[in-house]
What does this fold into?
Amino acid sequence: MKNWISPFELKRRGILGMNRRNVSYISRYNNRRQFPLVDNKLKTKLVAEEAGLAVPKLIDIVATQHEVESVEQNLKDLDSFVAKPAQGSGGKGILVVVGQEDGLYRKASGDLITLAAVKRHLTNTLSGLHSLGGRNDVAFLETLVRVDPVFSSFSHEGVPDIRLIVFQGIPVMGMLRLATRASDGKANLHQGAIGVGLDIATGRGIQAVLHNKLVTHHPDTGADLSTLTVPNWPSLLRLAAECYEVTELGYLGCDIVIDRDRGPLILELNARPGLSIQLANNSGLLPRLQRVEATKTKKMRIADRLQFAMENFKHDDTWETLPAF
It folds into this structure.
């Protein structure tokens, strides 16, 4: 992979940069009064649930230090759970517990921690250690999503998630994020997860990147990433498209997981989704966004919007013939 690409080449490939994203799409299509809805993961969960969208089940809300001290009562009968900061970003502050063993809690990475360590994590969350701008925060606990068997060899410990960029209610680009040992079981690219670009028409993998370098196999499991196809793909696309009606945000990032028992679930929503999805897809966002802008899509039904996405953003290249970004 090249270490540097000229601005001319980036423009030719239709790469959307941060400044243009912020000015032409986020500022133009996202009303700021809606931002608190997606900047706060707890609010997102509650609003999505109220709208009838599937989300991981809420176990508990921890808003005060007193509630931290009494959280043991709610945890003692749980084999697993996930603790999150309501206003966290970039995957920071998420504690994934996959089991209990002799009074200790086993993290997704396999490490064992004490109840005191769990409480300390919650206390740090309340103090704003993991929140945007260091503001005081609220922690919440939710059920652990169980990996769909189709992903069992493609992700290390953690649950893979699918990021879909939705523009004017139309899914325009997708990426599957796979946890690694280095990412501590979290599907976060900045922490060492793998990003696999996805064909919007089929959910088939296009190419995979790890720390901005092309890879063909998972570093921990050895699984061949070129064989990946996301199951229930039409259902995922529809779930992401429905988030447009719920949030009224024109430019939106939807993070979805597939639970082995419940199927696709909304994990969180983002009004300022990152741009690395373009690298995973070996394709720029700009031409796709401009194609939507040139089409009268506002009056389309959800089914028509999904059909538009699958017809216009289908990827024809095979895994083997893709040029390096």
Notes: The chain has two domains: 7-53+148-312, 58-142. The first strand starts at residue 58 and ends at 62.
